[in-house]
Automatic annotation (TrEMBL):
InterPro entries: Cof (IPR000150), HAD-like_sf (IPR036412), HAD-SF_hydro_IIB (IPR006379), HAD_sf (IPR023214). This is Cof-type HAD-IIB family hydrolase. Keywords: Hydrolase. PANTHER family: 5-AMINO-6-(5-PHOSPHO-D-RIBITYLAMINO)URACIL PHOSPHATASE YCSE, PHOSPHOSERINE PHOSPHATASE. Its EC number is 3.1.3.-. PROSITE patterns: COF_2 (PS01229). One of its GO terms (molecular function) is hydrolase activity. It holds the Pfam family Hydrolase_3. Gene3D superfamilies: 3.30.1240.10, HAD superfamily/HAD-like. It is an enzyme of class 3 (hydrolase).
């Protein structure tokens, strides 16, 4: 029977039961796995502070690969690895995003050393209205997420002069994430950033977004750094996720488990498929790994 020493889970669409919380039932299985000698970790596109808040709510403390691999931190919050965009790269991304004739309905956030930042509050408000008007489950889920982000918790700083902020206040810039319900614009934006900005890695955690990091800032490298830190061979690592930004860690780990709600391209390279995120898919997969059902 194969013995795995590290189990790494994505957050959105994976361990988060309803996009905002980890189910208590899942947290209990994580604790059982840790007691059995399987170290647990998170690999997420979210920033470290937000990811840790979600874990704290259910009493979990673990290493976190945040910003899609831009930052890797141990259980105590010590930074093990960081890779960020240069000021020039960040400004070039902004240049593409600010072409109003093409991307007038796209809003974006920037993950920085100084915190989570957004620009053009008018686009955020317009996008919120569109999400609510769409009425489908994904749109309403995202509407609630952004309502809490901007109007309840106020986690995001709105700045007018984003270029000036990058030059003078941001410190390290780890990631951009752009959103739009117009999927064809997400595809066009992805291609344009790749064509115009050298040294960046573009991926997605959903059809309605794209994420931009420095080249090398991906979950595969993040998980590799984490395994090295704990002296664990990559063959002894299990990863679980649901979307394209999880592909790099599936390529390096000993075992890759896709959620039932996963992107078809991730399912195609997975070793197993578990239940959906709202059907305790992570907890069930972890049980199968612990018992040896999935060697």
């Amino acid at each position: 029977m194969a013995t795995y020493k590290l189990f790494v889970s994505d957050m959105d669409g994976t361990i988060l039961h309803n996009h905002t919380k980890i189910a208590n039932e899942t947290a209990e299985i994580v604790r059982e796995a840790e007691a059995a000698g399987i170290r647990f970790a998170i690999a997420t596109g979210r920033n470290y502070v937000n990811a840790k808040q979600i874990l704290d709510e259910v009493g979990l403390s673990c290493p976190i690969v945040s910003s899609n691999g831009g930052r890797v931190l141990d259980t105590s919050g010590e930074v093990l690895h960081e890779i960020d965009l240069t000021i020039e790269e960040a400004l070039q991304v902004i240049d593409v995003l600010h072409q109003d004739d093409k991307y007038a309905d796209v809003f974006y956030e920037m993950y920085t050393e100084a915190g989570l930042v957004a620009s053009r509050g008018d686009l955020i408000e317009a996008s919120m209205k569109n999400l609510k008007a769409n009425g489908d489950d994904r749109s309403l889920e995202m509407y609630e997420f952004f309502k809490n982000r901007y109007y309840v918790n106020e986690d995001v700083k709105i700045v007018d002069d984003i270029e000036g902020f990058i030059r003078e206040e941001a410190g390290r810039v780890y990631k951009f994430i752009a959103f739009s319900s117009h999927l064809e614009k997400m595809t066009a934006l992805w291609k344009e950033i790749e064509a115009q900005v050298e040294g960046v890695y573009v991926t997605s955690s959903g059809n309605d977004n794209i994420e931009v990091m420095a080249h090398g800032a991906d979950k595969g490298n993040g998980v590799t750094k984490l395994a090295e830190h704990y002296g664990i061979d990559l063959s002894e690592v299990v990863v679980i996720g649901d979307n394209l930004n999880d592909v790099p860690m599936f390529k390096v780990a000993g075992k890759g488990i896709a959620m039932g709600n996963s992107h078809k391209d991730l399912i195609a390279i997975s070793d197993h498929v578990t239940e959906r995120h709202d059907e305790y898919g992570v907890a069930n997969a972890l049980k199968r790994v612990m018992t040896g059902e999935w060697e």
